[in-house]
Amino acid sequence: MNRVRELRRARKMTQDELGALLGVQKAAVCKYETGRVALPPEMLLKLCDIFDVSADHMLCRDANPIPKPRGDLSALFMPVREAVGVPLVGRVHAGLPMLAEENITEYIPVPAVDVRMGDYFYMEVEGDCMIGEFIPEGALVLVKVQPRVENGQIAVVRTGDEVLVRKLKWMPPHLMLIPANVRYEPLIVSEGDVQIIGRVVEVRIRGL
Asked: What pTM value is reported for the model?
């Protein structure tokens, strides 16, 4: 038994909106609310932060049905900042679009205001080619989908069966894909042999 549904409705949130904040699908929120799935510890902590209540209150272990505010009483009535779930793309399967369902591993909650102009996705970086731009292996890059970027911008591109994160330099009719690590050489390709998927607009390191 828990108060997830009660608290969500009190905040006038949909299951989709709560799922975006938690980084899960609507179906998972429904299971938590009905008790079909027990709340994992990490999910319980997120819910307590979102609704500003104690774990005892969330799990109906307290006698008082109304949570006590932490500090300013007005905090109880502040609206939750709207968020949306941005897809995290895993290893891309050859021939499939970047955002094909087979490529998406999870959804990451992001303030809606940050991604309101255009389409976005996250991609986990493989390798150390871009460490000079403070993009280490395992970092998540937020990519705005667009078919062209300016000289010197960092982009996600597809060439053959490879999807790469590189700095771009236009050299018509060629394009130079520049790594940020002296151990690797730039790659020069014909413009027709590369697809620009989007521009890197943010780097996120898990756990920071």
From this structure: 0.61
